[in-house]
Give the backbone structure.
Amino acid sequence: MTIGNKIIEFYNQLESPTNIPQEVEVLHPFKEPEVQQIVNKFYTTFYNDNNPRTFLLGINPGRFGSGATGIPFTDPIRLQEVIGIENSFDRKQELSSKFIYSMIDELGGPEPFYGNFYFSSVSPLGFVKDGKNLNYYDIKELQDNLEPYIIENLKKQIAFGANPVAYSLGKGKNIKYLQWLNKKYQLFEAIKPLPHPRWVMQYRLKRLDEFLLEYKTTLERHLTH
């Protein structure tokens, strides 16, 4: 089995977490036939090998990115126009996706990028409260209850073939929690922080080139094949 086959199987078997606060809804797009087809095509195309990847770990999927398309940090626009996978989703732009695909372009495009890197998140499924995206750390009870679910699914993905150093997309609460998890469960040799794409796009847009350069200089050393 290739890494791609293992990733596809992971998402096909992925279940929603239980024991979450009553007011929280789970985003689970992987039960949808169109998402299953997209996941199959994407990972068959870019992960048709057994080379290890450097893991880039976001917070959790959002409604307009992978919470819709099933592909991390990939909104319906980037999925069709950059990746070349047609889809019927609303043409809604997701700020993180816009940053990520500018960064991918800086590193040579999707083929070399996905040949060396693997996007996931602390939680593979996203959350919504009152119709808005919710981060796993926004509610302490949610974060605490999710810990076994998070660890189980991170370990499954690491088993696909992970390089020893991983990166947190987020220099605040996400890296703090990931480093705490890493100390407790020894998932990676090290987890290092990068600025969160949405934070850059929403609050530091005038410095976009600076943050793209930070990503490029940090990650290009991991372009090994």
